[in-house]
Amino acid sequence: MFQPENRIAFREIKGELGLWATLKCFASVVFKSLRVNYKTKKNINEIEKLKQGHKEHFKMVPLLYGELQKRLEQDEARDVMQSVIIKSGQAFVTGFASLGPDEKSLTNFIEVYKNFERNNIVFDVIEESEKKFEIKITRCLIYEAFKEFGAEDLAPCICDVATSYFSGYHPNIEYTKDRMIARGDETCHEIFIWRD
């Protein structure tokens, strides 16, 4: 239950609240999370099962946010949670396999991307080649999970995690994201360019 990103969250919040208050906060969150179950139901489609899995994985986020809102001003609680998500989100994307230094194109990256992200998003490929990979994301399951948690104001941080991660993923890959569902757009739009 205590995922790597939750350990990072603990460390970040400890810097804000101090050790004792953070221990009390996390004890409350852990206890409450034991009573929350988002395990998949039988009669739902595969996409909804994936979203339920994200809700189960991230179920401590709204609980932690609620605890911070009790202890801090609203804006401060949101700022702390946004910082926690951005910093701990890097632990979440560690499952995204890295590329070796001898890569010559996007070919292997595209497979890595599809294998990782097919659990997180629903997307259409606009262009797929050795030099360019462009997609339109029609559903972000993590965003939908956060929205259903009532923590929609934190969801844009998930985009910030992806932008930060992909911007430094490989020296030959240039990444841009000019539309984001979590920021009010109907779709997300991502482009990866291979630069020799």
Structure characteristics:
8 helices, 53% helix, 4 strands, 4-stranded antiparallel β-sheet, 196 residues, 16% strand, alpha+beta
Offer a quick outline of the entry.
With about 200 residues, this protein is α+β, with helices and mostly antiparallel strands. It contains 8 helices and 4 strands.
Strands, helices and their partners?
Blueprint: H1 4-17, H2 19-33, H3 46-57, H4 60-71, H5 74-92, H6 107-117, E1 121-128, E2 132-140, H7 141-149, H8 156-167, E3 173-179, E4 188-194
Antiparallel strand pairs: 1-2, 2-4, 3-4
How would you sum up this structure, described in words?
With 196 residues, the chain is α+β, with helices and mostly antiparallel strands. The protein folds into two domains: 4-93, no CATH class; 97-194, no CATH class. The protein is 53% helix and 16% strand. It is built from eight helices and four strands. It has helices at 4-17, 19-33, 46-57, 60-71, 74-92, 107-117, 141-149, 156-167, and strands at residues 121-128, 132-140, 173-179, 188-194. Strands 1-2-4-3 form a four-stranded antiparallel sheet. α3 crosses α7 (141-149).
* Helix count from the secondary structure assignment: 8
Termini separation: 42 Å
Average pLDDT score: 90
Binned, the helix content reads 40-55%
